[in-house]
Amino acid sequence: MKTESLSILLDQIAAYKRKYYINQLVKGTIFSAALILSAYLLVNTVEYFGRFNTTMRGILFFSFLAVLGYALVKWVIMPLVYLYGLRRTLSDEDAAAQIGNFFPEIGDKLLNTLQLRSLSVNQTDLIEASIQQRSKQLMIVRF
Predict the structure, then answer these.
(1) Is residue 3 within 8 Å of 81, Cβ to Cβ?
(2) What is the pTM of this model?
(3) What is the 3-state composition of the chain as percent helix, strand, coil, each rounded to the nearest 5?
């Protein structure tokens, strides 16, 4: 049985994971747009000054398409796949470790609380009380 404070804490972790992948998507969109624009300008400049034959123009074109495909897959499509849950996303423990690195006052408390939750299969009263106490302490910080 989950306590209310623990369920709020788990909801905050789920919201953090959504924000993490949205930030990855925004950052990836900016990176891919910059890379694609730079590659486009480079290919056009090289082709303009080079006066290449058809074979070299084809190599330039397909290399531009390869850069375009790589940028879109790596920085746009993969965060979308993770955001919509089509692949395995961050675990709660990994997200707690990232949050603990960002908020030093939380540190390992969040990770330890999640590990206690996974240990509480037998639902002993002591473990449940510890989880509830830690959850209430951690609800102070919004992440």
Answers:
(1) no
(2) 0.84
(3) 80, 0, 20
Decide if 13 contacts 103 (C-beta within 8 A). Answer: no
CB 47 within 8 A of CB 60: yes
What is the token pair recorded at 110?
A: 């969040």
Q: How does DSSP classify residue 143?
A: -
pLDDT tens for 40-75 read 999 999 999 999 999 999 999 999 999 999 999 999
Compute how many other C-beta atoms are within 10 angstroms of the C-beta atom of residue 17: 20
Phi, psi of 53, rounded to the nearest 5 degrees: -80, 180
Residue 110's alpha-carbon distances to 43, 89, 137, in angstroms, are: 49, 19, 10
Three-state SS string across 7-51, please? HHHHHHHHHHHHHHHHHHHHHHHHHHHHHHHHHHHHHHHHHHHHC
